[in-house]
Amino acid sequence: MTKVSMVVNGKTVSGEVEGRTLLVQFLRDGLGLTGTHVGCDTSQCGACTVHVDGQAVKSCTVFALDVAGAQVRTIEGMANPDGSLSTLQQAFQDHHGLQCGFCTPGMVMASAALLAENPTPTEAEVRHHLEGNLCRCTGYHNIVKAVLAASGQDVSAPLAAE
Amino acid sequence: MPKDGIGASTKRREDLRFLTGKGRYTDDINIRGQAYAHFIRSDVAHGRIVSIDTAAAEAMPGVLRIFTAADFAGVGGLPCGWQVTDRHGKPMLEPKHPVLADGKVRHVGDPIAAVVAETYEQARDAAEAVVIEIEELPAVVDMKAALQPGSPLVHDEIGSNLCYDWGFVEENRAAVDEAFARAAHVTTLDLVNNRLVANPMEPRVAVGDFEAHNDQHTLYTTSQNPHVIRLLMGAFVLGIPEHKLRVVAPDVGGGFGSKIYHYAEEAFVTFAAKQLKRPVKWTSSRSEAFMSDAHGRDHVTRIELALDADNNFTALRCLTHANMGAYLSTFAPCIPTWLHGTLLAGNYRTPLIYTNVKAVFTNTVPVDAYRGAGRPEATFQLERVVDKAARELGVDPVELRRQNFIRPDQFPYQTPVAVVYDTGNYHATMDKLLEISDYAGFAARAAESQARGKLRGFGVAHYIEACGIAPSNLVGQLGARAGLYESATVRVNATGSITVMTGSHSHGQGHETTFAQVVAEMIGCDASQVEIVHGDTANTPMGMGTYGSRSLAVGGSALVKATNKIINKAKKIAAHLLEAAPEDIELKDGKFTVAGTDKSKSWVDITLAAYVPHNYPLAEMEPGLEETAFYDPSNFTYPSGAYGCEVEVDPETGKVTILSFTAADDFGNIVNPMIVEGQVQGGLAQGIGQALLESAAYDESGQLLTGSFMDYAMPRADDVPFFQVDHSSCTPCTHNPLGVKGCGEAGAIGSPPAVVNAVIDALHRAGMTHVTHIDMPLTPSRVWAAMNA
Lengths: 162, 789
What we know:
The structure holds 2 protein chains of 2 kinds. By secondary structure, chain A is of the alpha+beta class.
């Protein structure tokens, strides 16, 4: 076991991990941050997406030791300081961008990373960016709509295909 | 009307916890002192277990115990909840389904042993050291091969791989044959309904806990129906009476049918927790899910449609081979029979129908209900053969459908396959589809595609489904070993707020929001005053759970019944306080008024009086304001809809792109339009997934070739367009109090034939009339091969 420290959601944390302990295991089991989910074992589904130093990372693909000293942000750190939902989180609720909620933390983290990089993405850009995050409930319709809305774009008219 | 009553697109209250990482899914539950289970699963499809040597593994760090079939000698097998009787009056063959493989393994993924250790890693490490010798036997994967003489037997003791040979309607068989002999035209189509994996994003998890001092078991599990699991596991597997067994299904991350069933791992952790006097947790990996969650579909069908000289449908005849997999999953036998054969009339007046279904055991993962369950298979074959008939006859597929639709004035309509449709208007949904999908403008769009070298096609499909399962006395006659009612307890608290305990279960459907809207509408209060409790057998009435688009139609009806009981009692209390007759009391906007007067009492006046009964008719009525109702439906509900898909096919590569998808549904009345639309959109993506991407594939030796998300193509955000979803056509259900029909499965039922019809349309418009069918999924290689055949 090795000691690892990092900053998670603004707080310095540390814990004992094995070399093989994944970041997602450290977050869930070590820190009790169970908002980050595990939906597969091949880094395909994106339910475990978190931010490491501002980049969206699938936390099942990195070892906890690999992010020693890094700034990590999880879904638990996404709300506004007063506890209210952030613009992006609120857009997911307003546009019914979630159903069972299991992929949602990963979707929010991946979408937040997109918007940080590209503040007004097109529909195609949103769909392409979320290609690494699987959702089985929504058919993606309302997720894409929520991300476009969070970017300040008008989604009040019926969204046309193509 | 309260602002969050029936008909409002109320935002979901459950979202707040899911959006902030505060959901409580089963894998988030960790009980002090818990141990971890890891299953060792068969890596061959069929074999005899020669030996299991656990000695070295038992000595490894942290190992608490290694379980094999021998440990389950005194334990029952996993039960099947539906017995189908075959066309000769014989009950289906029902092989044993042990918790851990006993003597033989029968599919890749069949659990052989389980290691329980202090940590998850220790359990996995020790599993590597368990030495299992298996004498591999020839496996059978193909259903028709499994029925040939000399085929390997999946279950030696039952002597056949034919689970049942079902005919429906058996008495119509000769008449159907005669109609075919007389037909002016017969269209025949052979097709495959591809095997799918439900793949809810949350893998299955089970945590067993045991309190020795009071002999109390608790199972936390990813289930759509905790009461059903308690009954099945308690009564049939482990012999635990209900009062000593609590089953909790907390937040559940999607189900789509795959979390209905009672699985071996649930029984295992419950059993092991008592043996070890420790909580035991198992979390499925996705790879395990692929080889242990029940799969869906997997039918091979020949369908024939007979028409007269005027293009009226005169008879339908089908032969389906339905894969059961290696064991009977909980409700497997009813899917290709009663949830499939009874829907073969579709939306049409076809007077004579006969279907023969042969259910077959193979060395593959068990197959059971997946979103739609039998109804997508019925719809797909019907809507494909109708489309093929239209092309053969040179008539418009839309017009051929319209001509044969049940007319609006014919409801209630008795089909020749037992069911009675109460309401519907298929002409209206078809008209709506053509309007909102701009069918009239298709030719111009096709020309534009052609100018770019692409082939454009438009496909339609019209579906019917039977939801709201089901009248218990009817399904009992059909072989169900369970009732299919639903329950609700409405507890009005002393200060007026309301707690509802439902036997239904939400795993994405939004019950916590919509059920509160129903109560708020009836009482005239704000929905925020109503809390919905579900998922725990300890605090909800016995209920059958959520599947088959039944929650609102059956569970919602129970809720209405219980709330009506509350209102009736509250009116009596109000009558006492207002010194009036109960029949003169009106409830409006949460206030009780004596009709025609200004005398009134508030809701809270009444609820306080019920619990502080100082001025209360105690001689006539009990104090308190809490009522329970069970609702058993008198019929199924029959949602229907017209779906249209517009595709572009790349003639160079065979790649299909969905340009638009339009759904015009009739769900009857609607409580929350936003949630209904979300259900349809999700179903559409699953149906498009089936049509273009998904397939659970086995090789000849029974190895699962698509065992992870690397190989099994799930629909992703860039595989689907924005959908156009309409539910303005409305013929309310006539036999439930809300007039609702159910919307959960429609998208997955109606979309696969619309997609395939669109691709065939594109090819035909380009002159490739030799392509009459392509089996799903319509991958570029399949489409290219068909084009170039």
